Amino acid sequence: MNRLLFFILVLTLFSCFQTKDEDIVAQVNDIKLTMDEFRANFSDYEWGILTVEEKKEFIQDWVQLTLLAQEADLLEISQYPMIVEKIKSAEINIKANALIASKLAEITISEDELFNYYKIHKSEYRISLKEYKVQRIFTKDKAKLKGILDAIKATSFKEAAIEYSEESAGKSGGYIGFLSKKNANEKIWNALITLQKFHYTSVETSRGFYVLRYYDTRIVKADKTFLEVKDEIIEAVNKKKKEDVYNNLIKELKSKSEITISI
Question: CATH number of the domain at 125-223, please?
Fold first, then answer.
């Protein structure tokens, strides 16, 4: 809503109430801004983080807009039919939004609701992951690396794995299948994603030394975990509940009201 229009409406709604002097935070001629009226412009969260300077700035805005509104009254601009109708419309909006906000504030979401939503909609939270089909040679002895690299050049990666690898996969040529980020050592994964297909490189890990190559890749679909998507689910469930609350409220009000539309 236009800020000037908003404050004109505030003046209209609250000017008839008596206020205690100690509650007044600003006054322009005969129009007073009380602490309650001032506070009502902010949510609890907004009020809690509002700085003194921001409060002063808001009050200055209120003073300026009030001066303009008072001048509009003196010039009888605020009595123009268009302005009167806009004020009425703004009042309706404020009241309607206040009712909706009070109903939405009653919404609660349990952990069971969130997890049940996750189970039903799990397929909507799938991601595509790249995996590498890997062949490797392992040794605990760094001094053996040069001999392994020389053997690869002289024969083949498979023959070098069979002869030098110190893990069981070496007996079958070092083929270990597909590796994903989830099941690979971080250093090995980082080496794979920067490596060219069919090329090889050596990597040192806490376990020992690996010579790696990959010869194929694939894209697989995987479900995100509940914790990974919990914030998204909260947003989705909350949105659905808000829509339900609003639609049910409108349905209830229509059912007990007489409504005529002539256009």
Answer: 3.10.50.40
Domain extent listing, the chain: 3-100, 125-223
Q: Please give the model's pTM, rounded to 2 decimal places.
A: 0.59
3-state secondary structure 48-93: HHCCHHHHHHHHHHHHHHHHHHHHHHHCCHHHCHHHHHHHHHHHHH
Q: What is the pLDDT along the chain (263 residues), one digit of tens a residue?
A: 444 455 545 544 444 444 455 589 999 999 998 998 898 888 888 999 999 999 999 999 999 999 999 999 999 998 999 999 999 999 999 999 999 999 999 999 999 999 999 999 999 999 999 999 999 999 999 999 999 999 999 999 999 999 999 999 999 999 999 999 989 999 999 999 999 999 999 999 999 999 999 999 999 998 999 999 999 999 999 999 999 999 999 999 999 999 989 88
